[in-house]
Specification:
The structure is a single chain. The protein is mainly alpha-helical and 271 residues long. A two-stranded antiparallel sheet has the order 1-2. It is elongated and about 90 Å long.
Length: 271
């Protein structure tokens, strides 16, 4: 089930709200609105992104961006429970009995893996096919968050270009000293726009999409190891412990009913 990521929304709303509040409290916020500056920073940096990537990559990324605001990833603990249940069923009734379980998750990767296992394909062949799927999925994700990362890196540069344009226009009016102040302020707005685009929107979005990618790859790796283990007839408790090794030490201790480690000790255990 798709869930809304309130952290992303809260971060953007808080950032824009605080910035807007600071502009209002500091004087006239209309001074920070300039259409030509937006054309240079937003339009110019987007044009550079189009040059750097293919049209299809840029077209697809607008569908990918919703992953930063929502998530439909499964809880790893639920996945461990599911594979533990499947392992017990396989030992009790045989691998063929798992055919009806291929559709337990709305996930083509899981369905494909279970079906190949039921069809008695060689474990090495199953691993090779699923690892190839994972590699190409990671590549698609890399392009998705790479576009936002590139856009975030380009935006401040186009802000600087806009400032240089403004400085040239200002120097051309040196015979009118009264216009120098407003022209200088206008020239700096593009740098402001570029910094906002990069550090409040695009680079954080790239970071969130990269995190989503890592989480999805970890779930896929857990599914792969679970499928191979079930086909090999591994004891369900051993399978459960193996899959739990993917989780953070804190989650493992909580699952085992142990007291969580102090924060510093837990941190040292992670590294």
């Amino acid at each position: 089930m798709r869930r809304i990521d309130f952290m992303t929304i809260a971060g953007i709303v808080a950032g824009i709200g605080l910035m807007g509040g600071a502009l209002i409290m500091g004087g006239n916020p209309k001074l920070f609105w300039n259409v030509p500056s937006l054309m240079v920073t937003v339009g110019g940096s987007f044009a550079a992104v189009l040059i750097n990537f293919s049209f299809q990559d840029v077209k697809n990324v607008f569908g990918t961006v919703r992953q930063a605001f929502t998530t439909d990833l499964m809880d790893p603990e639920e996945l461990i429970d599911l594979f533990s249940e499947l392992a017990r069923k396989a030992r009790r009734e045989g691998l063929l009995a798992l055919e009806d379980d291929a559709s337990r998750l709305d996930d083509p990767f899981f369905t494909k893996g279970i079906q190949m296992m039921v069809d008695a394909m060689e474990p090495e062949m199953i691993r090779q096919i699923l690892e190839t799927d994972m590699a190409y999925m990671a590549r698609r994700h890399e392009i998705g968050y790479g576009i936002f990362k590139t856009w975030g890196n380009l935006a401040p540069s186009f802000g600087l270009i806009g400032t240089l344009i403004g400085l040239v226009q200002m120097l051309a009016k040196l015979d009118k000293p009264e216009t120098l102040g407003p022209s200088m302020a206008l020239a700096l707005i593009t740098t402001f726009y570029g910094a906002i685009m990069a550090y409040m929107i695009f680079i954080p979005l790239a970071g969130k999409l990269s995190l989503r990618s890592e989480q999805e790859i970890m779930l896929r790796q857990m599914m792969l190891e679970g499928i191979i283990a079930i086909q090999s007839g591994v004891n369900p408790r051993i399978l459960e412990e193996h899959l739990r090794s993917f989780l953070a030490p804190l989650s493992q201790r909580q699952q085992a009913g142990e007291e969580p480690l102090p924060r510093e000790e837990a941190y040292r255990e992670r590294i």
